[in-house]
Design a protein that fits this description.
With about 280 residues, the chain is an alpha+beta fold. Among the domains are: about 85-190 and about 260-275, Lipocalin (Beta Barrel); about 195-255. It is built from 5 helices and 15 strands. The strands form 4 sheets. The chain has a 6-stranded antiparallel barrel with strand order 3-5-8-9-10-14. Strands 2-15 form a two-stranded antiparallel sheet. Strands 4-13 form a two-stranded antiparallel sheet. Strand 10 (about 165-180) and strand 11 (about 180) form a beta hairpin. Helix 3 (about 195-220) packs antiparallel against helix 5. The longest helix has about 30 residues, at about 1-35. The radius of gyration is 53 Å and the shape is elongated. The chain starts with a helix and ends with a strand.
């Protein structure tokens, strides 16, 4: 029994020694046959080759391809055809006036931005000769018809260009006269009818009183009518007083007059900024 136990103890002590010797021999054999640094380099080379193969592969047809290149942009020209705005050359100073005639009729019902043309009737001498027959163009910048408040119609014209020696030059100008009438603030105005409306209301009251007074006179021609004759007069007086008191308010219902200027009418154009001719 004691021998059996002793044998078991000896075996348990020897096994780790054998295992240790076995592991050491295997590792030494692997190190002799294989170089670890070479294995690492070979693995990196294989990985790089696989990456190149993947990058060289064409994408499948159903895979979207994105183009990140910047497209060429074509610039749009801002120049208005045949109109130039020179800042050098012979100067036509601001304030220069031209007598012109219109080539079309103009009214307070003409739409905003409607184009207008004028032709000068007299030569102008301002550093250069601007002959008669020079063409001017403009637009209606504001307009409206006669209004219920008594305000008259309105036409506002802005001069935009002048054609001289076959060249159209951008200018800035306004109308200062229309049919020999002075125009202020470039506003061609129709007659305001507010005061006329007030006067019409007062006149209406006075006429009502006169009719009532005549009726009282007729009624006083007989004994029975004499007693009642003051009533129409009093009524007429009250009606006239009401018309007079309310006339400032009712005058607002009077519509202002419209404007209609026929073709060929004379105007005066005044430059509001210097213009230059090359």
């Amino acid at each position: 029994m004691y021998r059996f136990i002793l044998v078991l103890l000896l075996c348990s002590l020897c096994i780790p020694v054998f295992a240790y010797n076995l592991d050491t021999s295997v590792n030494s054999e692997i190190e002799q046959k294989y170089d670890a640094n070479k294995l690492n380099k070979d693995m990196k080379v294989n990985q790089n080759q696989q990456a190149k193969q993947i990058s060289n592969k064409k994408p499948p047809k159903n895979t979207p391809v994105f183009d990140n290149s910047t497209p060429a942009v074509t610039k749009i020209s801002n120049t208005i055809s045949n109109i130039v705005t020179p800042k050098t050359g012979t100067k036509i100073p601001s304030g220069t006036k031209f007598t012109v005639k219109s080539n079309a009729s103009i009214s307070s019902w003409s739409g905003v931005n409607s184009l207008l043309t004028f032709t000068s009737t007299e030569p102008v001498y301002k550093n250069i000769v601007i002959p008669a027959g020079t063409q001017f163009k403009g637009v209606i910048s504001a307009s409206h018809g006669g209004q219920i408040t008594g305000n008259g119609g309105l036409i506002k014209i802005k001069i935009t260009s002048m054609t001289l020696n076959g060249k159209t030059i951008a200018v800035e100008g306004k109308i200062t006269k229309a049919n020999s009438k002075n125009i202020f603030f470039n506003n061609i105005k129709g007659a305001r009818q507010y005061l006329q409306g007030v006067d019409n209301k007062i006149t209406q009251g006075i006429n009502f009183y006169k009719k009532a007074r005549n009726l009282s006179t007729k009624m006083s021609s007989n004994p029975v009518g004499t007693i009642l004759s003051p009533i129409p007069t009093i009524t007429g007086w009250l009606g006239s007083a009401v018309c007079t008191v309310t006339s400032p308010v009712t005058g607002l219902t009077q519509k202002g007059k419209n404007i209609s200027i026929p073709s060929g009418s004379l105007y005066e154009i005044k430059l509001t900024q210097d213009a230059y001719v090359n």
